[in-house]
Amino acid sequence: MDHARQVFTVDLLERYATKGRGVITAMAAGNDVIVLGTSKGWVIRHDFGVGDSYDIDLCAGRPGEQSIHRVFVDPGGSHCIATVVGAGGAETYYTHAKWSKPRVLGRLKGLVVNAVAWNRQQITEASTKEVVLGTDNGQLYEIAVDEKDKREKYIKFIYELKELPEAFMGLQMETASLGSGTRYYVMAVTPTRLYSFTGIGLLETVFASYLERAVRFMELPGEVPNSELHFFIKQRRATHFAWLSGAGIYHGGLNFGSQHSNPNGDNFVENKALLDYSKLSEGSEVVKPTSMAVSEFHFLLLIGNKVKVVNRISEHIIEDLHFDLTSESASRGIIGLCSDATAGLFYAYDQNSVFQVSVNDEGRDMWKVYLDMKEYAASLANCRDPFQRDQVYLVQADAAFSSRDFQRAASFYAKINYILSFEEVTLKFISVGEQDALRTFLLHRLDNLTKEDKCQITMISTWATELYLDKINRLLLEEDSAVENHGVEYQSIIQEFCAFLSDSKDVLDEATTMKLLESYGRVEELVYFASLKEQHEIVIHHYIQQGETKKALEVLQKPAVPIDLQYKFAPDLIALDAYETVESWMGTKNLNPRKLIPAMMRYSSEPHAKNETHEVIKYLEFCVHRLHNEDPGIHNLLLSLYAKQEDDSALLRFLQCKFGKGRENGPDFFYDPKYALRLCLKEKRMRACVHIYSMMSMHEEAVALALQVDPELAMAEADKVEDDEDLRKKLWLMVAKHVIEQEKGTKRENIRKAIAFLKETDGLLKIEDILPFFPDFALIDDFKEAICSSLEDYNKQIEELKQEMNDATHGADNIRNDINALAQRYAVIDKDEDCGVCRRKILNVGGDYRISRGYTSVGPIAPFYVFPCGHAFHSECLIAHVTRCTTESQAEHILDLQKQLTLLGDGARKDLNGSMFEDSVSSTTNADKLRSQLDDAVAGECPFCGELMIREISLPFILADESREVNSWTIKPTNNLLNLRSISLPS
């Protein structure tokens, strides 16, 4: 232990603390408050927190000499209980920090209170809550006092020792809040016993339960001048206790956790120990302490006039504390010790003076204490810096190394960062030939390195890789005597090595590691590492060499694998397992089937069994039908594979399928028809050739080829032509000629079949069309029925033509009559009738209208139009309205007609003045024609009732060319309205 810096120091706090009120007989402290009891019955209170002090006379009015026996202060320093002993018996008083007068606790009259247990968890400045008092006759009382009531709330008797009625000398209490209520832990000591009480509910109920069950206690022999019980409080919770007993200092840990929450479980003490007084004596004579205080790691024991500081863990004396006593106090010496758990201070007192014992970082050397005791976990928990931890690890490592537990030693050596170099540790293991321990050391060292040590991490990882490979090789070279154990260990090291490669993939140098694995012949691990480093090409190549198609395809399916590898390995994979490869292709997105054509052609060139599914055809069908692939290369390849099959049904279905349907202006097929025709001719797929000819509009070739295969097919092809009657007839004649020439029956049967064939053409062919195909020596009798039938048809057609001519003549007469009647039609209008456009009188004779171009006036009246619906318009107004509302082309036509009429009008006037009469008549005739055309253009229907008005419904009110004009009238808001000044108008 380092004695250069003392853990505990003593300072004189106050020399004459009683102020002449007698000598000190008792003392207590809490929250920087000390309370002294004197031999004359005074209680003196010093509050160092606020620098205040006062004294209270508890013996006022009592006869005889009175002395304070005990004083007790709560941890907050607000509540005080004092017992006065005198000639008139014992009295117990309660006083509060805010009171100037004490309150006697009458129920306790005559009882000497030796111990008090405060409820630290629930006590407040205003209320004591439950307080347990222990008396010298072995009784326990519960009291509660509220400061505002100026008196106790209650005093209850709760327990009494009956088996061995001894005085209670010390009391401590802890509480814990549970779901079912408050749990109380009470510990009490007498000169020879330590009692433990616990239970849930009211404090009175807890002690009442011990009437029916035995109380737990620890009994120790021997006598001591003053038995004491102390709890050490850390963060408002007791962590360990100490009992000053006759046999020694009985101490241990306290655990108030849930595992000790059994209502009847009184055992909340752990790691119990007894410090024998013989360890404290310098000679053969055993000296017992007269008082005690407890810190986190030490006992302060008052022996004579000095305090021995004993380490609670090692039980060694570390310091002796001496006090500066006055001459009058030297005879009696130090009377006692007390502690202030809230402030973390200790006090010693003699008859006149109070000494303060301060703690200076008492845990600074505890790591050494635990280390000497080989309690390494506790030692590490108390280390303050990395150097201290290194020393603990070094001791552990050296101990394990000495006992030849090299694996454990390696794990501890790896944790040392400062006091032992990396090289020293590695040489230690190399010197004893422990490769496995060295590997363990390297692995643990890797765990302790930071990301900044990249170079060191890479070097150590590479070394560990080589050690793993060496270990694997050594296991392979071992003899077969331990084959079973060897197999288990071998598999274990392989798994461990693979896990190491996975963890270290980002720090290992790829090229170096690959060379190491290759040099040791570890192919599987090489492939595994390559997959970790995303060297997919190496992995796939290995699986293909091993014939493991599924594994290779699984690698290719990973998102990180480039799609180009699919195309690169496609030929090898489809050759190994076509089914799995094609299934993988169909499950892969963004695959370009065109780039797989070389692999598919290689597969297709190999022979296959008749009943075997052609996997390439399956994939191509998937591309064409499911993926809607439009690549001509894919369609051509599929067509070529269909053409090579014995059954041409699939080929025909493929040719008949319209792959571009649903697309506007799209093709019906994507294969090359010329290539398809050439291929089908080569493979002798005639039906397919017929279809292709027909698709290419080569109907004559299609029919000619179909006649070689099946006349029915030829008929169907001939019937497909619908828009060219001559071509259709020509095709049917080809079929008819073939049918007639190929018939092998009797002449009469052939003629009957030919006649039946005519019926299939739906009247397209007549008997006279096929007669040239019969032999010249055929008898006319054989065609009698057909010829008669044909003549009857012609007769019917002639009659129908006559009827149509009669109907046409009758219609022409009707039209002629309508035209004559039309010339006599007239309309009556009112003299006040208005023009539908200008709203002026139609029959205006004022002469204020300009005569429209192409029209002549009728006397003084301007030309006008009247419609059957009743609307009337001036000709000028009607022409202007129609020109404005009709289409641009129609308007130009009307203007052009007007222009021509104007020119003809001028010419006619010139002729009348001196030209030939015939030319004038001709000009007038042309003007009538133009005027008639103009009438048709502008007056074909009423502009208000006809189509012109209907079309105007869909037009906007404001046309596009008028938008600029409309925008110019828009009133735009201004942002400066608030800034405008009002201008007063002149009066």
From TrEMBL:
Reply yes or no: does the keyword Hydrolase apply.
Answer: no
PROSITE patterns according to UniProt: CHCR
Q: Where are the CHCR repeats?
A: 588-748
Answer whether the UniProt record assigns the keyword DNA-binding to this protein: no
Gene Ontology BP annotations = endosome organization; intracellular protein transport; organelle fusion; vacuole organization; vesicle docking involved in exocytosis
> Where does the RING-type domain start and stop, copy by copy?
835-945
Which spans of this chain does the record mark as coiled coil? 784-818
What Gene Ontology molecular-function terms does this entry list? Answer: protein-macromolecule adaptor activity; zinc ion binding
**SMART domains noted in UniProt:** RING
Keywords, ordered alphabetically? Coiled coil, Membrane, Metal-binding, Zinc, Zinc-finger
Any single Gene Ontology cellular-component annotation: endosome
Name the protein family.
Belongs to the VPS18 family.
Q: What is this protein called?
A: RING-type domain-containing protein
User: From which organism does this entry originate?
Assistant: Linum trigynum
Q: What is the lineage of its organism?
A: Eukaryota, Viridiplantae, Streptophyta, Embryophyta, Tracheophyta
